[in-house]
Amino acid sequence: MTRMTHRIAAARATRRNVLRGAAGFGAATLVGASSAGFSPAAARQDSVLRYWLPGGSPLFCETHGAILNAFVETRQGVTAEEVQCGTAESDDFIQVLLGAIAAKNPPDVTILWDTPVSLGVRGALEPLNERMAASQYSQLENWPAGLLSSTQFGGETWGLPVTAGVFTFWYNPQLLDDKGIPSAADKLPATWDEWRKLSADFVEWDGDTLVKAGFLPFGYDYDPSTMPIWSALNGGQLFDPAAVAYTIDSDQNVEMMDFMVAWLDEQYKGDIAAVQASAGWNGYANGDGLPPAFQDGLQLAMENGTWLMGDYMGEGEPAFVDWELAAYPGGPSGKPGFAGTWPNWMALPKGSANPDLGFAFMDYMGGEGVKQWFAAVPDVPTNTTVPPANPQVLVDYRSEEFATRTMEFIRSQANISAPMWNSPVQNFAADQLRRALEQMMTKAATPKDALAEAQAACQAELEKALAG
After folding, report:
1. What percentage of residues in the chain have a pLDDT greater than 70?
2. Domain-by-domain residue ranges, the chain?
3. Average pLDDT in the chain
4. Which residues contact 73 (CB under 8 A, 6 or more apart)?
5. Four-way CATH pick for 167-340+423-466: 3.40.190.10, 3.40.50.720, 2.40.320.10, 3.30.360.10
């Protein structure tokens, strides 16, 4: 799956770019389903734990190796292979994993950046309900419901959302202070209409170059990662898990995209190409190397995930570091009260040599290993048995007080996550939604027509998948 913001695209650099950009620089690199380590004849030892990651920075990979070693030290007679971190081609991990499953030689446990549901319904993962019930940390009640729903289908749980990036509004309070506008998070607009009005005060053009921005309407970069959040904020949803049906072209969703296109027209000349060519607008340099406008103090607000906390200082020399976080506003047919997450899921591949040992490591990771993970890489632990903690990166360049306050807010947002990543054809739907967003934002199709086309394609693919 080229999962949403993780896709490498010409006009932006986002989370998967950051995580995957160093894939292959970890402790070891996977090179394909037919290459070394993937032969069904390879030795399989019941006491040797095999752990795979989709990729990541050297720090990410090394940290997971250290966590694996710490777990093995707690298990008498158990050893572990070196952590396998990434594939030779950044988008190949799932195909490599499926190839290993088909060859009956998968790892015992893996992290996924793709929803476990889509793999579970294909018979590629072990169901977890029974093991969770007997676990130390992983009982159903120990996970936020919205997060856990991303792993559940057909009455089964197919993965554990051990950590998550939490989406929120990032904003520059200094820009508000300079205009005499209250800058406390609880004083910010609570509706889309109010944010649209506020945004207009901060938009500046120099000819066809956007030099300053307020908030750019959702979908300006064709990225559907947070589309379920915006839909929930307007009283809608994209996928109904109870009915096992897509609802992409609902009235609420058409209204949502009509609103965003009108916002683009009103403040950004309706010219998405000019916007994208002017700067990086999502906290990262864009694909052309243009610097991130937010760090340069040229953008009032954006939505992004908590992984940016670790990357923020790495994007050149920021003009300011005193950013704040705020809750999402409510739409015209909805209300505030929803956020969203991007989990790091752990799962048990079907047919592994050591499924019980693999689950024991998953359980350990959810309650203990994540503490070591979080200390190095600020992905937020989601299991409710894990005591609250502050990421050292925030303490170091802000303060302990700021880190405590910010993490309290982030945890509150994780607990109100809109259901996301829960369709059996999530990968296919992501591509269809990306295409629909591009059509809408470039005016190639109206929201009503683009969403109807995506609805028909996704529902047909879903029915095909469910029919086997």
Report:
1. 89
2. 4-166+342-407, 167-340+423-466
3. 87
4. none
5. 3.40.190.10
